[in-house]
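Quiz preparation item.
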């Protein structure tokens, strides 16, 4: 069984999502099905069919999240340290062309979210950064062409 590396924060979010589906969404859809059944003929009852479709989606989400939850390998980033980039590191990158700074945290695939500046450990940027240290230059193949970045800072927080 393959394990998924995940930060403690990502694991807690996964746990919260699973609890919400089981404790809120599942009972609500069961209630909606019961109400729709009370309206009579199920063959032409759009509310009933919509609720059943929603129930199927919720149940598949629960199975999927439970699988991920049991296979998560939780890594407490706060307990990590060092000078090189590895899983969990928050890295400040300086674009060598524009001098623009970007800050990224390297996280597991399941918790990656570009809007929150979290990139997957398997992304091209993260793969280029792993093992490098502050002051090193990395070249990353991007859709618009290769980009060069200097590692400005490596933190574990």
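Solution:
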């Amino acid at each position: 069984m393959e394990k998924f590396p995940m930060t403690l924060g990502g694991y807690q979010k996964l746990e919260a999502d699973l609890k919400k589906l089981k404790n809120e969404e599942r009972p609500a859809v069961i209630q909606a099905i019961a109400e729709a059944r009370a309206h009579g003929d199920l063959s032409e009852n759009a509310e009933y069919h919509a609720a059943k479709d929603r129930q199927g989606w919720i149940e598949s989400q629960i199975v999927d999240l439970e699988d991920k939850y049991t296979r998560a390998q939780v890594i407490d980033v706060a307990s990590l340290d060092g000078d090189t980039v590895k899983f969990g590191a928050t890295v400040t990158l300086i674009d060598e062309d524009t001098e623009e700074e970007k800050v990224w945290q390297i996280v597991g695939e399941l918790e990656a979210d570009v809007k929150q500046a979290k990139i997957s450990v398997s992304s091209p940027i993260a793969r280029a950064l792993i093992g490098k240290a502050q002051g090193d230059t990395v070249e990353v193949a991007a859709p618009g062409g290769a980009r060069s970045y200097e590692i400005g800072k490596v933190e574990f927080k």
